[in-house]
């Protein structure tokens, strides 16, 4: 309790004392400041360099009469020993300085010093301090720098600055723990750059400019205290700028020229290969055309040429026969394949120069050249014909083929005598020339073996048809050359025999099949029955019926897609039973051919 | 006879019963893992241990200086900043005096150096605890100050442990330490002063004294290290 009271009392006294009298020594340690001449004698400062000794200085001030030595004396008091002692050493060389050597310097204790005039016993000044608080270390020594690196541009560089602690400070023992501060500036600049405190003895400086001299200095202070020592001597850091522009200059030039060269090459390439590039990048749109046919010909060419071209097109033929595979089964094998080469087909047809040729016709069934039509230019063997006409008694009838074969192909007839073939071939007088013969026969039936049963057509046994036949030579030639691609007109000129019965005849233009290909196999199907090909029942002879021409010319296409046909001049009946419906007018076709685009008009 | 026997028995029982208490006061000399059981420690060289102890002392000294500055800026009126310069006039006395001059310190033996450090560390444990409580009473005490004070208390414990191990290793002494020696010296701090300025000054003084003592610890330990590494240069000249 008593101790507590004493403690608080001392504190309050201390507080009052401090408030009343300001010590000369500042709170942050002593500093040497200019003596104040207006005042009386006073302490100007105390300093310690290495925490082992310290000095104090005073000034007489205005009291000039106290300048003689010994007039003013310094007394000090430590907390350890509460007695006042006089300054142990008045420095002789320096005026008004009191030096405390190692013996008298104690750290961790406070000192109070007084400036007294002994004769008058007046205390002019007093102050208290601890030695650690008045330590100002000496400046570091051995400041030097080494170059760390230079930037790629050559404009900046980094250095490492080193120094040594002041020799007076015993850092090795740990008596003093020093921290350092480096400052630098460009030469003759006014502002110093300050770096953070460094406890080591080296520091890196980054980003210094080449070709500019840099001034560097360092100072130190005790750790956890505030008094910096003096600055060391400045050093000058200078790095000459390396002229590196030449190294970068050619690089950029090379790059620029390289790019220009590449661009020029590309342009040349494009211009030289323009056509090919155009094809690659902008392929031409294929114009519609038919293989083998010049589009110009289609526009301006003559129709006969056109027809010849068209007839030779394979593209139509497959359409014929691919849809009707049974057509391929039409086999009209001839006995002597070698003989066909000997005489032309025209001779065969006309029956003029038949010598040694046993072949009526040399049409091979497998050469499907537009034969799936009303016309069947393939004339089978007489033997086959005879076999194909089982129902026909044959004799009484005028088989067109058979009858005509006999006069024109006597050898054939001779040949057949050996066979079982009926004499109707032979019995038939050679009344009908080949010309009178119908070139086209109506297929009425098929044998299971694939043979074609032809129905007899009605013949006009007018002899004056010979002339017409001869006129048809030319047509036949054309026919033969085209592979028996016939036309209606030709058929008409050939004096189409009337069909035995309208219901059994060819319906060249089945009404329901108008839209389809005219030349397809549907011709061979009777309209009365279904479209599937099968053997037609044989038509009983209908002599009462007027001869009906089986073939006619398509004149118009009705709007309802029925064809308006030209009736043949000699035949009143029309092969087709198409009602005369209004059809889109078709341009007249001299040959009765339908061009593909006209064919297209038929479609809705 | 029976009374003697019973008294002896009582003393013996007291000793036996208090033995764990003494042990608990003792600084743990062996390593303990998280569960608290004694475990085999990885050995550390004496040199490294001394380095770590010195690091601790340096840190404590630095933090104490920062705490003092913080407190001064916050609570102490400017005219009274000179108190700091005076190094703390009312620091509590030590059981044995510590020399202040370099020459005298250099003459101190290693043993006394270590014991002095230990004594200093132990003398500050209680006052720091008190300081923590008293700082909390201030209305606007900055958190940094409180944290630093707390941190220093913890680090002081570690420092004590390290110094005890050093004593054991370097001096081959086993110590049962106890901080009860200084309990009586803490009485002045137990009383709370209602006066604000007084408490401020008292705390300020406490911080200044602690900073000084932390400097002492660091200096002694560094001197010890210098002696360990290079005997010649650290001797007095």
UniProtKB/TrEMBL annotation, chain A:
Membrane-crossing residue ranges in chain numbering: 249-271
Compositionally biased tracts (Polar residues): 401-410
GO BP: endocytosis
Family: Belongs to the type I cytokine receptor family. Type 1 subfamily.
Protein name per Swiss-Prot or TrEMBL: Growth hormone receptor
Compartment(s) where it occurs, according to its Swiss-Prot or TrEMBL record: Cell membrane; Secreted
Species: Labeo rohita (Indian major carp)
Record has Methyltransferase as a keyword: no
Presence of keyword Transmembrane: yes
TrEMBL record, chain B:
Entry-linked InterPro entries: 4_helix_cytokine-like_core, Somatotropin/Prolactin, Somatotropin_CS
Pfam families reported for this sequence: Hormone_1
Family matches, as PROSITE patterns: SOMATOTROPIN_1, SOMATOTROPIN_2
Signal sequence range: 1-26
Keywords per UniProt: Disulfide bond, Hormone, Secreted, Signal
Domain of life of the source: Eukaryota
Localization per Swiss-Prot or TrEMBL: Secreted
Protein family membership: Belongs to the somatotropin/prolactin family.
Protein name as catalogued: Somatolactin
């Amino acid at each position: 309790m008593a101790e507590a009271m004493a403690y608080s009392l001392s504190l309050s006294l201390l507080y009052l004392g401090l408030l009343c009298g300001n010590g000369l020594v500042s709170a942050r340690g002593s500093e040497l400041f200019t003596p104040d001449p207006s005042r009386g004698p006073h302490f100007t400062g105390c300093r310690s360099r290495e925490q082992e000794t310290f000095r104090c200085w005073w000034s007489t001030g205005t009291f000039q009469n106290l300048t003689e030595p010994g007039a003013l004396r310094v007394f000090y008091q430590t907390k350890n020993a509460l007695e006042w002692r006089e300054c142990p050493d008045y420095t002789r060389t320096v005026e008004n300085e009191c030096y405390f050597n190692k013996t008298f310097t104690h750290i961790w204790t406070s000192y109070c010093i007084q400036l007294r005039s002994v004769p008058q016993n007046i205390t002019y000044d007093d102050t208290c301090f601890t030695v650690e608080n008045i330590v100002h270390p000496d400046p570091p020594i051995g400041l030097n720098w080494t170059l760390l690196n230079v930037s790629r541009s050559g404009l900046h560089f980094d250095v490492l600055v080193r120094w040594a602690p002041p020799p007076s400070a015993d850092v090795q023992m740990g008596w003093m723990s020093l921290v350092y501060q480096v400052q630098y500036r460009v030469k003759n600049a006014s502002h110093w750059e300050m770096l953070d405190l460094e406890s080591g003895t080296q520091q890196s400086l980054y980003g210094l400019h080449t070709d500019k001299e840099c001034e560097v200095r360092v100072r130190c202070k005790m750790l956890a205290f505030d008094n910096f020592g003096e600055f060391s001597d400045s050093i000058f850091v200078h790095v000459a700028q390396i002229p590196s522009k030449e190294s970068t200059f050619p690089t950029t030039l090379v790059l620029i020229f390289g790019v220009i060269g590449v661009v020029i090459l590309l342009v040349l390439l494009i211009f030289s290969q323009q056509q090919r590039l155009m094809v690659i990048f902008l392929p031409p749109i294929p114009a519609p055309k038919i293989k083998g046919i010049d589009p110009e010909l289609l526009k301006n060419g003559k129709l006969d040429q056109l027809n010849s071209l068209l007839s030779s097109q394979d593209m139509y033929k497959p359409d014929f026969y691919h849809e009707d595979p049974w057509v391929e089964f039409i086999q009209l094998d001839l006995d002597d394949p070698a003989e066909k080469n000997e005489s032309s087909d025209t001779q065969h047809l006309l029956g003029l120069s038949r010598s040694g040729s046993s072949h009526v016709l040399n049409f091979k069934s497998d050469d499907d050249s537009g034969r799936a039509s009303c016309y069947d230019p393939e004339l089978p063997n007489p033997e086959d014909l005879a076999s194909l006409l089982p129902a026909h008694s044959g004799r009484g009838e005028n088989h067109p083929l058979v009858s005509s074969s006999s006069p024109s192909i006597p050898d054939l007839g001779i040949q057949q005598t050996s066979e079982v073939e009926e004499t109707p071939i032979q019995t038939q007088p050679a009344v009908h020339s080949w010309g009178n013969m119908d070139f086209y026969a109506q297929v009425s039936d098929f044998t299971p073996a694939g043979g074609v049963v032809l129905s007899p057509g009605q013949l006009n046994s007018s002899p004056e048809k010979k002339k017409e036949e001869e006129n048809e030579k030319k047509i036949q030639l054309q026919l033969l050359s085209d592979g028996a691609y016939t036309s209606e007109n030709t058929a008409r000129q050939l004096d189409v025999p009337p069909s035995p019965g309208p219901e059994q005849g060819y319906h060249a233009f089945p009404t329901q099949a108008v839209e389809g290909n005219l030349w397809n196999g549907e011709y061979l199907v009777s309209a009365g029955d279904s479209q599937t090909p099968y053997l037609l029942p044989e038509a009983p002879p209908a002599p009462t019926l007027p001869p009906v021409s089986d073939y006619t010319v398509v004149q118009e296409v009705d709007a309802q897609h029925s064809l308006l046909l030209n009736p043949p001049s000699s035949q009143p009946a029309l092969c087709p039973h198409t009602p005369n419906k209004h059809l889109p007018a078709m341009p007249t076709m001299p040959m009765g051919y339908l061009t593909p685009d006209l064919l297209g008009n038929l479609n809705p | 006879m029976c009374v003697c026997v019973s008294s002896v028995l009582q003393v013996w029982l007291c000793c036996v019963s208090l033995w764990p208490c003494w042990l608990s006061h003792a600084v743990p000399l062996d390593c303990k893992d998280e569960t608290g059981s004694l475990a085999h420690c990885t050995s550390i060289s004496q040199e490294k241990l001394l380095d770590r102890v010195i690091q601790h002392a340096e840190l404590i000294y630095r933090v104490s200086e920062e705490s003092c500055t913080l407190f001064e800026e916050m609570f102490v009126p400017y005219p009274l900043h000179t108190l700091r310069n005076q190094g703390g006039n009312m620091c509590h006395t030590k059981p044995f005096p510590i020399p202040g001059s370099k020459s005298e310190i250099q003459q101190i033996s290693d043993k006394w150096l270590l014991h002095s450090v230990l004594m200093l560390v132990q003398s500050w444990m209680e006052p720091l605890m008190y300081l923590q409580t008293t700082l909390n009473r201030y209305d606007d005490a900055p958190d940094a100050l409180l944290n630093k004070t707390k941190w220093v208390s913890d680090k002081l414990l570690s420092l004590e442990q390290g110094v005890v191990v050093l004593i054991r290793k370097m001096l081959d002494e086993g110590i049962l330490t106890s901080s009860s020696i200084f309990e009586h010296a803490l009485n002045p701090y137990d009383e709370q002063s209602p006066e604000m300025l007084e408490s401020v000054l008292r705390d300020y003084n406490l911080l200044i004294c602690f900073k000084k003592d932390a400097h002492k610890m660091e200096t002694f330990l560094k001197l010890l290290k210098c002696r360990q590494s290079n005997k010649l240069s650290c001797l007095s000249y």
